[in-house]
Amino acid sequence: MIELEGVPELIDPVMVAAFEGWNDAGDAASAAVAHLDREWKGEVFAALDAEDYYDFQVNRPTVFLDGGTRKITWPTTRLSVVRVGGGAGGKGRQRDLVLVRGIEPSMRWRSFCNEILGIAHELGVEMLVVLGALLGDTPHTRPVPVSGVTSDADLASRLDLEESRYEGPTGIVGILQEACTHAGVPAVSLWAAVPHYVSQPPNPKASLALLNRLEDLLGISIPLGELSEDARAWQLGVDQLAAEDSEVAEYVQSLEEARDTAELPEASGEAIAREFERYLRRRDPHAGPGLAAEGGVADGRDGSYLRDTTSGRTRPPRPMPKEPREPRPADDAGPGPNPPGQGPADPADRPEDGRPPEDEA
Questions:
Q1: CA 263, CA 23: separation in Å to the nearest integer?
Q2: Considering the entire predicted model, what is its pTM?
Q3: In whole angstroms, what is the distance from residue 64 CA to residue 74 CA?
């Protein structure tokens, strides 16, 4: 580990992590952690040694000019800390978040996880929350499904989370969560389902849904900045481009009908209550958390993300019924032929309702 700055004294710290790559469809998870770091002006205090974990032919370093001097940025995982809470007038609960943001390592995953857990132990971290995103059969016009998964039965019961039952290929998210289980560190993964027909990054709507669910889980208020407006613009752009292709429009409508049929009772009750709870908490820092929220609002951004880079088209590709998509457990896809962030390509593992799968750890 490369020490960059002294580690500050932390208050009730929770570690929040996200990794670019296979567990980050649409860059939704890494963008969510980047938003936290930016809005709360995170202070980087450590970075893992890039030589130990990354293949530089896969994740190449970049060169930039700093005042006429050429410098190199190496692909790695950095840790920063932010102070959360306080509210107006210094009221409300204060706590710290340790943000872990980087790239899924190319090698030595066990050592990688042990190093992160060592830092968590030194800082007195109370819980680790890993954010992820997967491709799913979910319409872009509906709230983004977000599932919360844990391998700890007691934690699942206390926080109203799903207990993991996944078996299959895994990525760094699953390995890290399993390492936490063996180390006795409470760990939760939050998964956002990204529409498979608009998988190109960024996806601010999915990032917003993850942040909303993180708010509910930790009972904190997260400044959203321009993220809500970006999400609305994203959806508007996708709406316009999808409308240009009748087949895509019909396909989206079929996804909407399936989603509405499956979730009508919740949409009319618990989901609305949780959204109202979140609204109250943002007005009053003393308001309690609303756990197990579905997360997300109908928001959007520029439709250029639908561009097919192979053909130059600026409309959604036609949906293929048997097109490879995310794994049923969607949590942590392991290495395979698919592009980073898009999960395994076994259609048999795909949930029919587009609902994010259980995390496997």
A1: 25
A2: 0.71
A3: 11
Q: How far apart are the C-alpha atoms of 52 and 74, rounded to whole Å?
A: 12
Give the relative orientation of helices 28-39 and 204-218 as an angle to the nearest 10 degrees: 60
DSSP code for 298: S
- C-alpha angle 351/357/361, rounded to 5°? 145
Give the mean model confidence (pLDDT) for residues 266-283: 55
How far apart are alpha carbons 6 and 144 in whole angstroms? 38
42-76: per-residue pLDDT in tens? 988 999 999 999 999 999 999 999 988 999 999 99
Enclosing H/E stretch for 83:
strand 78-85
For residues 247-271, give the mean pLDDT. 74
Alpha-carbon distance 355 to 262, whole Å?
Answer: 10
DSSP 129: E
d(CA 82, CA 65): 28
What 8-state DSSP symbol labels residue 27?
G
